[in-house]
Amino acid sequence: MLIDNKTKTEGNEHSTVYDFLINYIEQGKVDIVTGYFSVNALARIKDEINNPERFRMILGNLLREDNQQDKTINLLSDSLGIEQVLQLGLSAKKAVDYLKQEKVQVKTIQRNFCHAKTYLYHDPDTRKNFHIIGSSNLTDAGLGIRESGNIELNSASTGNNNDFLELKEWFKNLWKSSIALDQIELPDKSIISVKEHLINLIRDLYQRYTPLQLYYKVLYELFKDDLLSLSLDPEFKKEINHLEDTVIYKILYSFQKTGVISLIKMLQRNDGAILADAVGLGKTWTALAVMKYFETKGYRIVLFCPKKLDANWRQYLEGHRSKFERDRLKYTIRYHTDLQDDRLESYQDGYK
């Protein structure tokens, strides 16, 4: 039987590796060899395939041989959206609970690249034995838990046939070999079991996300396309060259500069934008920079504000010797009450 995580063949309801595993694994023994794995895949095994009396897993190299802090290769290889970020902590806890079971044994191949992907199930009733061999790692994409652009192909077969017996012998020899390690040396020269090291790595993942961190993640997901377009748009970079030379723009913090660029883009695209930063984050200066940009593009600027805030804005006009005097800020101040009746008509300066 061929399994590519996409195609349902006639008479075969199991189109993914995970479908096959969850339907055929009972209370026997499971052996797995995989180059990569994901936290969510381990969590799903804990939730839905935790009946077997023994699990043995041989994993690819868990350490990077560089100066960075050691970390699991491709542990989070699947792209993380908002939903995945919210679920990551729970999945990590389940993965740790799964690994802490005595029936779970883990080894790693550290000095050689583990390219093999094999799933073996041994049952007291040998007719229920099965094996899967092919391209699928123990990851969300490899198991078919989520849709992926990956092209996977695996061969699955049940029973105690010659292929199963050969794979069983191959796994036994690999498990006993010197390249499959149950202990590893960390960069600080300490020795630790592979299983304990893996548990420690995954524990580092399930931090509690604060509301602020989740807020930032949501904002990033909403505006990441805009941020990317801003960073890659050479024409727009040329447009803001004059703005970047102004005193007002140079004095802004980086988050304010990002706000300025976003506001300009929104105004160009939608003819309107709202700056809703909290009190004390510099909305006035951010707005002045936006106004200066459009002034350099030949626009005449009219500022509407409550009358009691007139002085707040008038102090930055050209001729008032503010710290932005060199920018020669020019705009006309109007009050929001001027929008009533025909009050704008009473001004003789041409702004109506």
Write the layout of secondary structure elements.
Blueprint: E1 2-3, H1 17-24, E2 29-34, H2 39-48, E3 54-59, H3 82-99, E4 104-109, E5 118-122, E6 130-134, H4 140-143, E7 154-158, H5 162-176, E8 180-181, E9 183-185, E10 191-193, H6 194-203, H7 211-232, H8 234-239, H9 241-244, H10 247-251, H11 254-270, H12 283-296, E11 302-305, H13 310-314, E12 332-335
Parallel strand pairs: 2-3, 3-4, 11-12
Antiparallel strand pairs: 1-7, 2-5, 4-8, 5-6, 6-7, 9-10
What is the count of distinct domains?
Answer: 2
Lateral arrangement of strands in the main beta sheet: 1-7-6-5-2-3-4-8
Percentage beta strand: 5-15%
What is the helix content? Answer: 25-40%
- Give the H and E element order: EHEHEHEEEHEHEEEHHHHHHHEHE
Q: So, the CATH homologous superfamily of the largest domain?
A: Endonuclease Chain A
Structural class by sheet pairing and helices: alpha/beta
Q: How far from one another are the termini?
A: 76 Å
Global Rg: 31 Å
Instruction: Based on Cα principal axes, name the global outline.
Output: elongated
The CATH architecture of the largest domain is 2-Layer Sandwich
Strand tally, please? 12
Q: Which fold name fills CATH's third level, the topology of the largest domain?
A: Endonuclease, Chain A
Biggest sheet, open or closed, and with what strands and sense? 8 strands, mixed
Number of helices: 13
CATH C-level of the largest domain? Alpha Beta
What is the mean predicted local confidence, pLDDT?
83
Low-confidence stretches: 63-79
